[in-house]
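A reminder from the course coordinator: this example appears on the midterm review sheet, so study it carefully.

Given structure:
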């Protein structure tokens, strides 16, 4: 089966408005900028859309890694698309694309998949009142905007076998390249094994793209309202591993008890037991000191225990990300 890098990440958002839903007409101020929220029963949960999180990720990769090449955006009337060139452009490979030009339509399912970032506990956004009053004459213009204080949870998965591999199967999502594109893959060192319709880029390219996608997380930046609600969106707690298969057993590790979100050690132990034969590497847990310090003793006990079916590595988020990134080469073969 295909090997996947899987992760759960928590972002501390203590006074934030990272993803807004736009303006809302109000009788009081006539303009209110609302944050994105969802409802579960009677409770409200702020969230950041999966698209916004992907945009932070894509932009960070472009700015932080000199050898990462981002695809240009092209427009035809009301349609926008990238170059759909996964050999030249790293983000076309990792983030996928769809390009329909005349009769030549190519699509690529993104090897990198992620959820929205959703608050781990209920939180009603605060309405903040302000005025635009720089002018020396005239009345000030009132406005409102919302912000919240919460911890946001997201999960992601990177299909390590899919990065740097492309097919021309005539099926939606699988026709990644046109027949005329094969020569470009060959010029880049791409190979095809036997009758397999999949072309594979050289291993060093695939490894670099996977490593940099993971290594972007400790320097991730982005979000709305940063001028007045500066938020560090790097992981404050992250759980990582490599899994044989495409499911995501870390999805339900954060639980809500009496309106408070917390990491369930019991759920983590159950996942380790149930998927021990699927984990290809250790379980890497990174926590930033000062964030959920009450977990420190329990996580240290897990990492020092010797009766678990999987090794637990416990350190800071940056350290565990770097450790696993350097080991990804082991799980990326020379051919799919």
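Designed residues:
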């Amino acid at each position: 089966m295909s090997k996947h890098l899987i992760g759960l990440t928590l972002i501390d958002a203590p006074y934030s408005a990272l993803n807004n839903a736009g303006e809302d007409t109000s009788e009081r101020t006539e303009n209110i900028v609302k944050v994105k929220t969802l409802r579960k029963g009677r409770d409200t949960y702020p969230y950041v859309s999966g698209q916004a999180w992907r945009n932070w990720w894509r932009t960070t990769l472009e700015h932080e890694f000199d050898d990462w090449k981002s695809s240009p955006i092209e427009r035809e009337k009301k349609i926008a698309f990238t170059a759909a060139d996964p050999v030249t452009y790293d983000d076309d490979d990792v983030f996928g694309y769809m390009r329909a030009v005349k009769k030549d339509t190519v699509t690529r399912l993104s090897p990198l998949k992620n959820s929205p970032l959703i608050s781990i506990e209920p939180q009603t956004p605060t309405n903040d009142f302000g005025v635009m009053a720089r002018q020396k004459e005239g009345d000030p213009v009132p406005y409102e905007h919302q912000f919240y204080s919460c911890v946001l949870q997201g999960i992601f998965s990177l299909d390590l076998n899919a990065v740097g591999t492309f097919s021309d199967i005539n099926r939606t999502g699988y026709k990644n390249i046109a027949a005329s594109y094969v020569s470009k893959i060959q010029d880049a060192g791409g190979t095809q094994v036997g009758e397999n319709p999949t072309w594979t880029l050289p291993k060093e390219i695939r490894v670099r793209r996977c490593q940099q996608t993971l290594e972007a997380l400790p320097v991730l930046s982005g979000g709305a309202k940063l001028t007045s609600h500066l938020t560090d969106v790097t992981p404050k707690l992250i759980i990582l591993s490599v899994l044989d298969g495409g499911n995501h057993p870390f999805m339900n590790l954060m639980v809500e008890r009496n309106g408070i979100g917390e990491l369930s050690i019991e759920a983590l132990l159950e996942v380790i037991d149930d998927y021990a034969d699927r984990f290809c590497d250790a379980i890497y847990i990174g926590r930033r000191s000062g964030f959920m310090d009450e977990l420190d003793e329990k996580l240290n006990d897990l990492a020092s225990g010797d009766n678990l079916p999987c090794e637990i590595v416990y350190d800071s988020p940056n350290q565990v990300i770097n450790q696993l990134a350097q080991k990804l080469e082991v799980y990326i073969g020379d051919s799919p």
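Residues 3-331 form one domain. The chain has one domain: 3-331.
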